[in-house]
Amino acid sequence: MKTNFPETHAQQHVVLKTRKKNRVKISHIILHVVLILGAFIMVFPFLWTLSSSLKDVSQIFVVPPKWIPSPFVWSNFPDSLTSMPFGLAYWNSFYITAVVVIVSLFTSSLAAYAFAKIRFRGSSILFMLFLATMMIPKQVTLIPLYIIMGKIGWLDSHLSLIVPGALFNAFAVFLLRQFIKGIPRDLEEAAIIDGASTPRIYFSIILPLIKPALSAVGIFIFLGSWNNFIEPLIFLNTPEKFTVPLLLNQFKGLHTVDYGLLMAGTTISVIPVLIIYIFAQRKIIEGVTITGIKG
Known about the structure:
- The protein is an all-alpha fold.
- The protein has helices spanning 5-52, 57-60, 76-83, 86-117, 123-132, 138-151, 159-167, 170-181, 185-193, 198-209, 211-226, 230-235, 244-248, 259-294.
- It folds into 2 domains: 5-52; 77-294, MetI-like (MetI-like fold), CATH 1.10.3720.
- The termini are far apart.
- InterPro entries: MetI-like (IPR000515), MetI-like_sf (IPR035906).
């Protein structure tokens, strides 16, 4: 009498494999649906800003809302540029952001190298205290920082925006330290045998190897500095020294707000951020991913 156990087992294996594939497909579909919804929620404010920048006030507040302006009010863009000193504000934001990024990358990489590779007493405790500052809201430190800036005469000066942001960035130090810890110590030992000093090791070995992490951290610092609003609002008083986010706030009058010009100015201010993100999104993902793996 012939038994069909092998055939039954093979059939069961095929059925289980098919069910597993179906479950994987369903999970992928659900994941993509969730991601698409999340992407739409994220991009919705920008799309509405772009649409409103081409409308007049009557179109912006129409109910039900209309996505496509009718007619298109193209004059909002030149009017927003001429009604406020946008060129000067752009220059202020650009050079402040550039200085903050360059100096912050240098100081953060130095601190990260010290915490990752140089052994000294209390380094772990000091690093934990350093990271603990990330849990303190920025609003808590504004009043002490304002008093300090007033004591040293930096109120209504761009130095009040550059120096604190450039010399202290716990997040950047943390990411760079995680990356540097993954660099083999054999490279440093070989350099020491060849007579290299600590600064030479840092400039010749460490910096070239952490370029992906530096790129990612630099982009994060750029975005944070370019979009910074609360600190310029507190420290700056002269309109000629305003940054782009602070200048946009000037479209808000005492009783009325010109939303068409405000949305047009906001759209213009987002252009550098979009350019940075479009051309550097791979660097952001690569740098953060590698940093996490190395840590």
